[in-house]
Amino acid sequence: MLQFSKYQGLGNDFLMLDGRGASSTDASYGLTPERIQRLCDRRFGVGADGVILALPPRQGGELRMRIFNADGTEPEMCGNGMRCLARFLADSDGDVPGRQWQIETLAGRIVPELLQDGSIRVDMGAPFLDPESIPTTLACGKNGLAQGNLQVAGSSFAVGAAGMGNPHVVIPVDDVEAVDLERYGAAFEVHPAFPARTNVHFVQVISPTHLVMRVW
């Protein structure tokens, strides 16, 4: 039997598995890509955007985080997923505000913190802007941002890209609700301009201090 909890951060939901007591830092608990797909299926499974597994540390941290997308692939890291993991740890262990965790990820060590109101703060650090570090084949523009125009699913989009330990592409649009997210999000994710695949963000500017975003 597979025991799990389910958490969400800004609507980004994950199945949480506590494997900190495992004898190996590489314990998989039977999480094959096929099983992850079944678990994350919103019609025939539990339903989630991904699965997060907490494991013993490898490199001097407190624990190691592995995260899997709903399709079974393993990205480097996820900010919302990290916040969910920290909240899960706090709930499981009875931690108090001010608690920080040294968590190893494929993107390096991340340190989330439990705040007084019960929320979790994560310093994601400065983004990588040079194309090689993202990675992307987009050229670096005059403002120092990897950017350009991409043909995706029969349409042309002006885009910018940044890296946060994993790739992100940002696509400004007039109306995020009018975007066919499944069509264009899926196509952007595997676009040749992003050899390591990418997270996809469609962004509508409401005002200088208000953005609306849809994420694939």
Strand fraction band? 35-45%
Query: How many β-strand runs?
Result: 14
Query: Over all CA atoms, what is the radius of gyration?
Result: 18 Å
Q: pLDDT average, as an integer? A: 95
Percent helix range = 10-25%
How are the strands of the largest sheet arranged? 1-2-3-4-5-6
Q: What structural category do the secondary elements indicate?
A: alpha+beta
CATH architecture of the largest domain: Roll
CATH class of the largest domain: Alpha Beta
Main sheet characteristics: 6 strands, mixed
User: What would you call the shape?
Assistant: globular
Distance between the termini: 31 Å
| CATH homologous superfamily grouping of the largest domain | Diaminopimelate Epimerase, Chain A, domain 1
What is the count of helical runs? 3
Low-confidence sequence ranges: none
**Overall number of structural domains:** 2
The CATH topology of the largest domain: Diaminopimelate Epimerase, Chain A, domain 1
Order of helices and strands: EEHEEHEEEEEEEEHEE
List the defining traits of the structure above:
Diaminopimelate Epimerase, Chain A, domain 1; 216 residues; alpha+beta; 6-stranded mixed β-sheet; single chain; 35% strand
